[in-house]
Amino acid sequence: MDRFEYFSSVSGDMGKILRFMGLIAAIPLIVTVAYSEWEMFVPMGLVPLLFIIVGSLLAQVPRPAREPRLSVALMAVALIWLISALIGSVPFIIGLHMSVTDSIFEAMSGWTDTGLTLLPDVGAAPKTLLFWRSFMQWLGGIGIVAFTVALASRSGLVQRGLYRSEARSEAFMPSVVGTGMAMWRIYIIITLLSFGLVLLSGVPVWDAVNLTLTAIATGGFSVTSGGISDYNNVLLELSLVVVMLAGAMPFKLYYLMYHHRTFSVFGDRQAVTLLILALSGFVVLTLDLFVLTGTDLLTAMRRGIFMAAAGISSTGFQTASPNLWPPVTTLFLIILVLIGGSSGSTAGGLKISRVLLGLESLLWWFRRIFVSGKAIIPFRHEGRTVQKNIAEVEVSKNMLIIIMYFLTIFLCTVAVLHFEPQTSFESSNVIFEITSAFCNNGISTGFVNPDMNLPTKWVFIFLMWFGRLEIVPVLVLFVGIVKGFD
Fold it and tell me: Please, which of 183, 302, 333, 353 could form a disulfide with 343 given CB 3.0 to 4.6 Å?
């Protein structure tokens, strides 16, 4: 088959997903009406219209008899996220007259839950656009495909291929549609609970709604120019710490609690590791700020716990700028950002499960070095013994992804430093910013701003897209365009 035939095998399912997104994307118009922002009705109204038009066109493409292969499903998911960012940028282009590049950057940051922004003045933006940013992050947190596949009429190979291609591994039920429905219900429930918690901090309802949507999605967009610091509210910061960590937990925990009435954080390795990393980050950041910068202890603790939680959960909220910290403190925060949250959560980053598997692989490798070549050393993962041939394949795939993460960060850092030769930021801050974008974190040193050169902005757009889908789908799209999908 040629490229078009491969594409046509999955275009119908892409069309269904985009048409459903069109219905969901009409929700921000409620804010337009509620706040009488009639000048935003057309810019915002074009979003659902474009989703439906593009989806309907794709749905009309004749579909071949054979099922699409995995590579085509990977390509389709990468395209769905790119199309969503392009359509999502329209209100910024028309409503705020931002440049096309800046608007696509903003929309990609929203859909991928990154939280970096190029808005010149967040506080002055229309409420419709502020809610659209928050809503994009909320939808992107659970995943565009994961959110919409629950509404599909069937659960076949196409749905499974698309779902798995979105870097999702959780499987609560045999049916992908069943799992999608369970995730949807759980996501809405924990969002509502989080809203109640944030509201208890005393912030206005409007702020609480937006902060909840972006916190549970581990996104990090805010509705004020100064972000969380503008509130100067300890209760808000502590409530957001809880919500951010809740969003970074594996959703399987919530499923077990919802359906089996059992909830054991300490029975899940990822959850335990997440809490240990958050606590370790709190201790290290607090001590560094107290000892190295002379910050008073209470302020150091307050910033330490919030920034550690924001770092490990891949949420872009921040109460301090790493640009003002000692390099060693910023380096430690980079480690938290790079690791990210749990697999099967809304968080970005390498994922805790991948890091744990990498550590298990190294231990397995070292154990085999120091024994006889005839000895069989079993590979154990999550309490189970894995066959050697399967273990070697999974270990190799896992290490390959980790290597690609570091290689991407290195190459993009070199590119950005060439595109921004006159920058006043140290290279360590540039590395932090690139890691933050690639891991869909959003904590910023201030390097990302509207004055960046055009190529630099596109590097960051690519990084956010590349990182959210965990590399492979975007690579498959590029390779498929050049060489085909054979």
Answer: 353
What value does the mean pLDDT take over residues 313-340? 93
Given a contact cutoff of 8 angstroms between Cβ atoms, the answer to whether 241 and 305 are in contact is yes
Stated as kind and residue range, the H or E segment containing 438 is helix 427-438
Rg of the chain taking only CA atoms, in angstroms: 22
| 287 pLDDT above the threshold of 70 | yes
Name the one residue in this structure whose structure tokens are 């039920």: 173
Q: Bigger pLDDT: 309 or 346?
A: 309
C-alpha to C-alpha distance for 13 and 15, rounded to whole angstroms: 5
Q: How confident is the model at residue 153 (pLDDT cuts 50, 70, 90)?
A: very low
Residue type, 178: G
Cα gap 43→96, rounded to integer Å: 9
pLDDT for the residue 68: 65
Cα 467 to Cα 176: distance, rounded to the nearest angstrom: 23
Cα–Cα distance, 326 to 20 (Å, whole number) = 47
Q: What's the CA angle centered on 77, arms 71 and 83, to 5 degrees?
A: 135
Q: Which residue has the tokens 């050169």?
A: 453
Query: Using alpha carbons only, what angle is made at residue 433 by residues 122 and 230, rounded to the nearest 5 degrees?
Result: 35
CA distance 442 to 115: 4
Phi and psi, residue 304, nearest 5°: -65, -50
Closest to 72 measured CA to CA, from 150, 165, 181, 152: 165
Q: What is the structure's pLDDT at 476? A: 84
**Residues 248 and 339 sit within 8 Å (Cβ to Cβ):** no
385 forms beta bridges with 380
Q: Domain extents for the chain?
A: 1-168+455-486
- Mean pLDDT value across residues 103-123: 94
Residue 154 confidence (pLDDT): 43
Find where tokens 């800046």 sit: 102
pTM attached to this predicted model: 0.91
- For tokens 């954080």, name the residue: 265
Cβ–Cβ under 8 Å, residues 138 and 213: yes
DSSP 18-52: HHHHHHHTTTTHHHHHHTT-GGGHHHHHHHHHHHH
User: Which one-letter DSSP state was computed for residue 122?
Assistant: G
From CA 434, how far away is CA 437, in angstroms rounded?
Answer: 5
Predicted confidence (pLDDT) per residue in 25-41, tens digit: 999 999 999 999 999 99
Please name the amino acid found at residue 43: P
Neighbours of 267 (CB within 10 A): 11
Partners of 381 in the β-ladder: 384
d(CA 199, CA 207): 9
Show Cβ contacts of residue 65 under 8 Å, excluding neighbours closer than 6 positions.
none
